[in-house]
Design brief:
Strand content: 35-45%
Largest sheet: 3 strands, antiparallel
Helix content: 10-25%
Strand order of the largest sheet: 5-6-7
Shape: elongated
Distance between the termini: 79 Å
Oligomer: single chain
């Protein structure tokens, strides 16, 4: 159990989730903050929470399917984005293949739950989102260079 406890010096707190679902006999002999784990109902590690200066509020969720099937035709969520830091307050529509990109995060419409009253968003932080565009630009420049070199060689042979 050695590294249990928290990340010292990282400023991350509240990284423990206590519950009563782990069989304590499976981890006999372990100690947590001076108490044997067998006396604690159970514990699980969870990822550190990240708090952002903006908030999202679900205004309306829409889920339509193709007639006679359960195949989704459209998932969409109208949300309200409030960012006190940027003094921004606006409504945004997130739907299939049209995510919200804001503050380095991308919010994708992933699905619905609770009889279509709860919208599920997948949140992705990708610091290298520009890399594919840069790569395509480099490939395009390489193709243009290659084509230009062959064109110049062809024109020189044609003149001679």
């Amino acid at each position: 159990m050695g590294a249990l406890g928290g990340l010292q010096g990282s400023g991350i707190h509240d990284a423990w989730l206590f519950h009563n679902t782990i069989n304590a006999s499976a981890i006999q002999g372990a100690w947590f903050h001076g108490y044997p784990v067998s006396r604690i109902p159970g514990f699980t590690l969870r990822p550190a929470r990240v708090y952002n200066p903006f908030s999202l509020t679900l205004l309306k969720a829409t889920h339509t399917v193709y007639p006679g099937t359960d195949i989704p035709k459209n998932f969409s969520s109208r949300i309200r984005l409030i960012d006190s830091r940027q003094k921004e307050d606006r409504n945004v529509l997130i739907y299939m293949n049209s995510p919200l990109r804001y503050s380095g995060y991308t919010f994708y419409q992933a699905g619905f739950d609770n009889n279509d009253k709860t919208s599920i968003l997948q949140v992705v932080k990708n610091p290298t989102f520009l890399l594919p565009y840069i790569a395509c630009g480099l490939v395009g420049a390489g193709l243009l260079t290659q084509f230009s070199m062959h064109l110049v060689g062809f024109l020189r042979r044609r003149r001679a």
